[in-house]
Structures are given as C-alpha cells and as structure tokens.
Specification:
heterodimer, A: mainly beta, six-stranded mixed beta sheet, five-stranded antiparallel beta sheet, B: mainly beta, seven-stranded mixed beta sheet, four-stranded antiparallel beta sheet, 11 strands, about 50% strand, globular
Chain lengths: ~110, ~120
C-alpha cells in the first residue's frame, strides 16, 4: 500500500532551526511536495523535489533521497509565523497526490 | 501565479439540507479538479477527481450519490453535499493541477477551502 509518515508534532524555539522528516512508500514516484497549512486555511506550496539532493529557497530547504524513500524540510531562523502544519505529499505514478497526516510545528518565544 | 477560488468560504446548514460549493480557476483553464475533505487534525483526503465534460471519479468509500460533482466548464467545478448530516461537517478544499507553465509542472493550486458545519 501507499504510505506517508511524518511526526505528528514538533516544538522549536524562535530563531532556531528545525528539521521535519518524511518517509514514503508509493506506487511509482513523480515528485515530493511540502506544503504549509495554517489552521482553517488551505495548504500553500513550499517546495517540490523530484531529483535527489537539496533545494534551497530562502529560509526553507527541502531534501530528497529517492533510494531511501526519505525527505526532510529544513526551516531556519524560525519566526512565530512559521507555527503551522507542514504536509508532505508524494505524487504517484498516476500523478495523484498521496498526503501525509501533517506535522504541527509549534514555535515558542 | 494560478489562482483558485471557492465559494462559500463558510456555511452552516440544517441536517437534511443540501449545500453547493463552487470551485473556480480564475486565470487558467482546468480540465481536472480535485476535491478534498479534511477533518480536524487530520490530513487531506481525496474525495473525487472532477473531469470537465465527463463523470467524476470517486475514491473508494465516497458516496457519489451523496457528493454530487459537476464540472460544468473549464473554469468551474461544483460539489453538492446532498442531505447533509453532522458527520459531513468538515473542511472541503478543491485544487487544480498546473498547466505546465509553472515552475513545477505537477504543482497543485488550492482554493481557500470551505468550512461546512451541519447542525
């Protein structure tokens, strides 16, 4: 079956760095997405990885290892506004998104 | 970038009534749209794929007679929750895939979501 695993909740301190991990098992692979979702709002796109390696975009970076079925989202210089749920999603061979349950990130002053 | 809108953003209705949710692609055409449902503290669950000019494809366990989907044009898909019950209360989100002009061809563009509360 298809499965996406990520931690349920993480806590970090303002100004610090946090890494949110995601492991996946899907039927085929057409890329991995990270989305940010604030409570009561729709997800917003953060990153897309389809090749192995690190993609950096400002304070956010995303890493992919296809051989390990593993990705992480790295958030630097954390701000209070980064408190949100972070969703990992894989696109399978049918170009359908398979979603993880999301990681709730709590930022403390 | 591509914009997807949803209407209404928030609705409260009595049990047994029907509710229609609209999803529009504002600046691009979408032959396919996806409808998701999200319960509190849970992930997005794909309900169905809406196809312009043909029947929607429903995921296993989703009642097609209860959740009616109509993809009337290349910019509009509607989801009607018929005979709504309290257990249908949820956050409903639509999305449309990119058309290839985006940085990431497979990117999904999400509507802002509709919060449905059935009393």
């Amino acid at each position: 079956g298809q499965n996406i695993d990520q931690p349920t909740e993480m806590t970090a301190t303002e100004g610090a760095i946090v890494q949110i991990n995601c492991t996946y098992q899907t039927s085929g692979f057409n890329g991995l997405f990270w989305y940010q979702q604030h409570a009561g709002e729709a997800p917003t796109f953060l990153s897309y990885n389809v090749l192995d390696g690190l993609e950096e975009k400002g304070r956010f970076s995303s890493f992919l290892s296809r051989s390990k079925g593993y990705s992480y989202l790295l958030l630097k210089e954390l701000q209070m506004k980064d408190s949100a749920s972070y969703l990992c999603a894989c696109m399978d061979s049918n170009y359908q998104l398979i979603w993880g349950a999301g990681t709730k990130l709590i930022i403390k002053p | 970038g591509a914009v997807v809108s949803q209407h209404p953003s928030w609705v409260i209705c009595k049990s047994g009534t029907s509710v229609k949710i609209e999803c529009r692609s504002l600046d691009f055409q979408a032959t396919t749209m996806f409808w998701y449902r999200q319960f509190p503290k849970q992930s997005l669950m794909l309900m169905a794929t809406s196809n312009e000019g043909s029947k929607a494809t429903y995921e296993q366990g989703v009642e097609k007679d209860k959740f009616l989907i109509n993809h009337a044009s290349l910019t509009l898909s509607t989801l009607t929750v018929t005979s709504a019950h309290p257990e249908d209360s949820s956050f409903y989100i639509c999305s449309a895939p990119g058309t290839g002009g985006e940085i990431f061809e497979n990117e999904q563009f999400f509507g802002p979501g509709t919060r449905l509360t059935v009393l």
